[in-house]
From TrEMBL:
One of its GO terms (molecular function) is metal ion binding. PROSITE patterns: CYTC. Residues 1-19 form the signal peptide. This is Cytochrome c55X. It comes from Pontibaca methylaminivorans. It comes from the Bacteria.
Length: 104
Protein backbone atom coordinates (compact mmCIF):
# COMPACT_ATOMS: atom_id res chain seq x y z
CA UNK A 1 0.00 0.00 0.00
CA UNK A 2 1.38 3.47 -0.84
CA UNK A 3 2.61 5.30 2.22
CA UNK A 4 0.32 8.30 1.76
CA UNK A 5 -2.74 6.02 1.77
CA UNK A 6 -1.58 4.42 4.98
CA UNK A 7 -1.23 7.87 6.55
CA UNK A 8 -4.80 8.76 5.58
CA UNK A 9 -6.08 5.55 7.17
CA UNK A 10 -4.09 6.20 10.35
CA UNK A 11 -5.47 9.76 10.50
CA UNK A 12 -9.02 8.40 10.14
CA UNK A 13 -8.45 5.80 12.84
CA UNK A 14 -7.08 8.48 15.17
CA UNK A 15 -10.18 10.59 14.60
CA UNK A 16 -12.48 7.64 15.24
CA UNK A 17 -10.73 6.81 18.51
CA UNK A 18 -11.28 10.34 19.75
CA UNK A 19 -14.91 10.68 18.70
CA UNK A 20 -17.29 10.12 21.57
CA UNK A 21 -14.69 10.74 24.26
CA UNK A 22 -15.99 13.18 26.87
CA UNK A 23 -12.75 15.14 26.98
CA UNK A 24 -11.36 16.38 23.70
CA UNK A 25 -7.79 15.61 24.62
CA UNK A 26 -8.42 12.28 26.31
CA UNK A 27 -5.63 10.81 24.21
CA UNK A 28 -3.17 13.35 25.60
CA UNK A 29 -4.37 12.79 29.17
CA UNK A 30 -4.05 9.04 28.84
CA UNK A 31 -0.52 9.52 27.54
CA UNK A 32 0.28 11.78 30.50
CA UNK A 33 -0.97 9.16 32.95
CA UNK A 34 1.11 6.46 31.29
CA UNK A 35 4.28 8.46 30.87
CA UNK A 36 4.37 11.08 33.65
CA UNK A 37 2.50 9.25 36.39
CA UNK A 38 4.04 6.03 35.10
CA UNK A 39 7.55 7.38 35.61
CA UNK A 40 6.99 7.01 39.37
CA UNK A 41 4.05 4.64 39.65
CA UNK A 42 5.36 2.21 37.04
CA UNK A 43 4.47 1.97 33.36
CA UNK A 44 1.62 -0.38 34.22
CA UNK A 45 0.72 1.79 37.28
CA UNK A 46 1.26 -1.16 39.60
CA UNK A 47 3.84 0.71 41.62
CA UNK A 48 7.46 1.83 41.51
CA UNK A 49 8.77 4.77 43.50
CA UNK A 50 5.09 5.62 44.05
CA UNK A 51 2.49 3.02 45.11
CA UNK A 52 0.15 0.89 43.03
CA UNK A 53 -2.54 3.18 41.54
CA UNK A 54 -4.57 0.56 39.69
CA UNK A 55 -8.35 0.60 40.37
CA UNK A 56 -8.26 -2.10 43.08
CA UNK A 57 -5.63 -0.14 45.01
CA UNK A 58 -7.67 3.08 44.94
CA UNK A 59 -11.02 1.75 46.16
CA UNK A 60 -10.90 4.01 49.22
CA UNK A 61 -11.08 7.10 46.98
CA UNK A 62 -14.02 8.75 45.26
CA UNK A 63 -13.46 10.73 42.07
CA UNK A 64 -13.47 14.08 43.84
CA UNK A 65 -10.93 13.18 46.53
CA UNK A 66 -8.72 11.45 44.02
CA UNK A 67 -8.71 14.43 41.68
CA UNK A 68 -7.66 16.61 44.64
CA UNK A 69 -4.73 14.27 45.31
CA UNK A 70 -3.73 14.65 41.66
CA UNK A 71 -4.05 18.44 41.75
CA UNK A 72 -2.41 19.05 45.13
CA UNK A 73 -0.05 16.11 45.42
CA UNK A 74 0.79 14.66 48.83
CA UNK A 75 2.80 17.26 50.75
CA UNK A 76 5.98 15.96 52.31
CA UNK A 77 6.27 13.11 49.81
CA UNK A 78 7.57 12.72 46.27
CA UNK A 79 3.99 12.91 44.94
CA UNK A 80 3.98 16.29 43.17
CA UNK A 81 1.03 18.68 42.68
CA UNK A 82 -0.23 18.71 39.10
CA UNK A 83 -2.26 21.90 39.37
CA UNK A 84 0.28 23.86 37.29
CA UNK A 85 -0.23 21.45 34.39
CA UNK A 86 -3.80 20.22 34.67
CA UNK A 87 -7.23 21.83 34.87
CA UNK A 88 -9.78 20.54 37.38
CA UNK A 89 -11.65 18.76 34.62
CA UNK A 90 -8.40 17.13 33.45
CA UNK A 91 -7.80 15.91 37.00
CA UNK A 92 -11.35 14.56 37.23
CA UNK A 93 -10.86 12.75 33.93
CA UNK A 94 -7.65 11.19 35.28
CA UNK A 95 -9.32 10.25 38.59
CA UNK A 96 -12.17 8.62 36.72
CA UNK A 97 -9.72 6.88 34.41
CA UNK A 98 -7.72 5.54 37.35
CA UNK A 99 -10.82 4.33 39.20
CA UNK A 100 -12.79 2.93 36.29
CA UNK A 101 -10.39 2.55 33.41
CA UNK A 102 -8.48 -0.60 32.85
CA UNK A 103 -4.87 0.53 32.94
CA UNK A 104 -2.75 -2.54 32.46
C1 LIG B 1 7.92 12.12 41.19
C2 LIG B 1 7.22 10.87 41.37
C3 LIG B 1 5.71 10.84 41.19
C4 LIG B 1 4.99 11.24 40.10
C5 LIG B 1 5.50 11.82 38.80
C6 LIG B 1 3.59 10.94 40.41
N1 LIG B 1 3.49 10.40 41.65
FE1 LIG B 1 1.77 9.85 42.58
N2 LIG B 1 2.81 9.35 44.26
C7 LIG B 1 4.20 9.38 44.36
C8 LIG B 1 4.57 8.91 45.69
C9 LIG B 1 5.99 8.75 46.24
C10 LIG B 1 3.36 8.61 46.37
C11 LIG B 1 3.20 8.08 47.80
C12 LIG B 1 3.16 9.24 48.75
C13 LIG B 1 2.99 8.74 50.16
O1 LIG B 1 3.98 8.31 50.73
O2 LIG B 1 1.85 8.80 50.64
C14 LIG B 1 2.28 8.91 45.44
C15 LIG B 1 0.94 8.76 45.73
C16 LIG B 1 -0.08 8.85 44.82
C17 LIG B 1 -1.46 8.56 45.07
C18 LIG B 1 -2.06 8.09 46.40
C19 LIG B 1 -2.13 6.59 46.41
C20 LIG B 1 -2.82 6.06 47.64
O3 LIG B 1 -3.00 4.83 47.70
O4 LIG B 1 -3.22 6.83 48.51
C21 LIG B 1 -2.14 8.73 43.92
C22 LIG B 1 -3.62 8.52 43.67
C23 LIG B 1 -1.19 9.17 42.93
N3 LIG B 1 0.06 9.25 43.50
C24 LIG B 1 -1.50 9.46 41.62
C25 LIG B 1 -0.62 10.02 40.69
C26 LIG B 1 -1.00 10.48 39.39
C27 LIG B 1 -2.41 10.37 38.81
C28 LIG B 1 0.12 10.99 38.81
C29 LIG B 1 0.23 11.66 37.44
C30 LIG B 1 -0.67 12.78 37.21
C31 LIG B 1 1.21 10.82 39.77
N4 LIG B 1 0.72 10.24 40.89
C32 LIG B 1 2.54 11.18 39.54
C33 LIG B 1 5.09 9.78 43.40
C34 LIG B 1 4.76 10.31 42.17
Amino acid sequence: MPVNRLLVILALLGGAARAGEPVSDAVALERLVRQDCGSCHGLTLKGGLGPDIRPQALRHYDTETLSEVVLDGIPGTAMPPWRPLLSESDAEWIADYLLNGEPE
